[in-house]
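Batch manifest line 334
LIGAND: S-adenosylmethionine
JOB: complex structure
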Amino acid sequence: MAYCVDYSERANAQIYLYVQRSTQLQQAEADLLQSEFLRECLEKLEPVLVGVQDIICLGLGNFLDCTIARYQLAFIRCVRNKANLTAKGQFFDPVFTPSEVDTLQHALGETVLQENLEGKYSVERKTLFFLPHCPKQIVNNLLWKNWYPHRLPNVVLLCNSFSTVVNNAPDRLLRINAGYILRAVDLFQEVPLRNSFRFGDIFNDTSLHYFANNDRPAGDNAAVWDCTVEPSYAEDDLELISKEKLKAIRSAENSGAFALASKYITDQYRRFETTEQQHCRAKEELQFTAETYRCYLESLRKLKDLNESYRGKGERSIRDTADMVGFKLPHDPK
Ligand SMILES: C[S@@+](CC[C@H](N)C(=O)[O-])C[C@H]1O[C@@H](n2cnc3c(N)ncnc32)[C@H](O)[C@@H]1O
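JOB STATUS: finished
ARTIFACT:
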């Protein structure tokens, strides 16, 4: 069904969505703050987060549309505040929309990173990486980039459990697309976060990982640090959006090669693609939001029609009606 929507309707709908979304984020933070889940997480996280100077969050997803991503954003903000960390969050996800970038930077005071480093961040000081349900290649790249005895201890990771990754695929395959995760299992301490939150698909399979050289003498063995070959992945196995892929998408968008509709569909597809780590509820949510939005616009249109029909040409003014029945208005002379 086609709707011809005028600009004021659109502006109203946008304001309505904006208010709804800000409220949703505040609600998510409030919800977490009173949860047993967050309390338990903080007990495990706080001692490890002492001295963290930067917080980098990758692969959050579309937090304005998707409940999972919204709660994850709320989570990292609550953890930061409760653990008294002063760092701003630095966020990157190639699927962020302009409204999401704007919300992070201007409404929430966080930082949005511009460059797609595919996880290859070099870490010179203690940094918390929050990579909720992120492609394993991003974690693998991050480990590779910091695979030095003086750098790896700076990496604190909140992401999908290393043990799950390692236990779910044969070493032969892991050596190709997650070789550094495979090796990190012996160097990092893994602390699973018990998934007791009321929604089971937001923090599932999430663990805290930190370098634990004291407990793991493996780190003292020079051979551990020997091989530092940059990982490369087969294109068809690639869950992450690589620099090349992103460049191709953006240049297609800029060249106008995409009609608006096909661009929209591609965006939605990319946004709600389901990967091995995620059973995304966002597809249904998108449908629900679209249906709500359609209903809202349809109601506005009907209201406008009703106003036009019943308050139209035939309607008499108060003065006309008063004159007709012989009444005076309050300000008329006696
Ligand atoms: C499985 S989704 C997880 C989304 C959300 N955090 C969740 O748990 O539902 C993986 C996310 O990683 C993002 N991603 C892919 N390539 C990336 C890259 N190069 N850098 C940062 N994020 C990336 C995707 O855009 C997507 O949002």
